[in-house]
Amino acid sequence: MELWYTEKQTDNFGITAKITETLITEKTDFQDLAIIDTVEFGRMLVLDGMVMTTVKDEFVYHEMVAHPALFTHPNPKHVLIVGGGDGGVVREVLKHKSVEKAVLVDIDGKVIEYSKKFLPSIAGELDNPRVEVIVNDGYMHIHDHKNSYDVIMVDSTEPVGPAVELFTKGFYQGIYDALKEDGIFVAQTDNPWFKADLIQSVNRDVREIFPIVRVYCANIPTYPSGLWTFTMGSKQADPLAVDETAIPELDTKYYSPRLHKAAFVLPKFVEELCK
Ligand code: SAM
């Protein structure tokens, strides 16, 4: 008998993956958690029925959350990741030797625990001495840490459950206040096919707070529609003003110095959402 995992990405459309094993399913204090082995994309973390990350395509998202902002900031030392309990963004942040401390704040300790146990290739750096892992609401953390961080990355679930507040103007204002004077923030801001309204509202809110706002895209096959956006707000440095010839080649598989600016070239229907 074949077993398939299906994610309904809208009420009328979804993706489905043949699975070989269910490693764990648990209702945590915050969400339904599952880790499954799929034939096409390998091991997969699922939260509240939504694909969070897979061993096969995780590098795209985690590299594209981390490197554009870290190569735009002149000297990133203190980095905050809100969410990101699977550890993939932390792994990419630590590739930047200037980073002295990466603080990860995820509301659900079970995501961290099970990612370490079942997803070692993604979560392997969570115990790095340069990493501080805090189990807390990211919304609370940023309001308690003003003027503290060079770069803040929001690697949260979609705006459901505990992540709803992470897509509000009040949260972005809190991020602005938690950043130092030349700080940069980046958030995953979903897809333009099914969540155009979200991209528009986030862009509008962030533009009212940050002087420089840029949106970029990446292709993530296991995320809804496959076309994913990221919104960057910066107090001083512009990612499009970076000299990409000065960006070093890192051990990456998606991000590159050549892709740094190209990622900000948007399809016209996405540009329309960011005006
Ligand atoms: N890459 C995924 C995506 O784009 O949907 C996100 C992966 S990461 C596992 C998402 C994390 O956000 C989860 O571990 C979840 O517990 C965390 N999260 C949700 N709401 C949060 C909040 N208010 N504060 C901190 N972490 C939160």
Features:
single chain; 275 residues; alpha/beta; Rossmann fold; seven-stranded mixed β-sheet; binds S-adenosylmethionine
Number of structural domains: 2
Q: Sum up the overall morphology in one term.
A: globular
Using only CA atoms, what is the Rg?
18 Å
At the first level of CATH, what is the class of the largest domain? Alpha Beta
Helix and strand pattern: EEEEEHEHEHHEHEHEHEEHH
| Whole-number mean pLDDT | 97
CATH superfamily of the largest domain: Vaccinia Virus protein VP39
Major sheet: size, sense and barrel closure?
A: 7 strands, mixed
The set of bound ligands, ions and cofactors reads: S-adenosylmethionine
CATH architecture of the largest domain: 3-Layer(aba) Sandwich
Number of strands: 12
Distance between the termini: 50 Å
The spatial strand order of the largest sheet comes to: 8-7-6-9-10-12-11
Please report which band the strand proportion falls in: under 5%, 5-15%, 15-25%, 25-35%, 35-45% or over 45%: 25-35%
Q: In CATH terms, what is the fold-level topology of the largest domain?
A: Rossmann fold
Helix content: 25-40%
Given helix and strand content, the structural type is: alpha/beta
Low-confidence stretches: none
| Count of helical stretches | 9
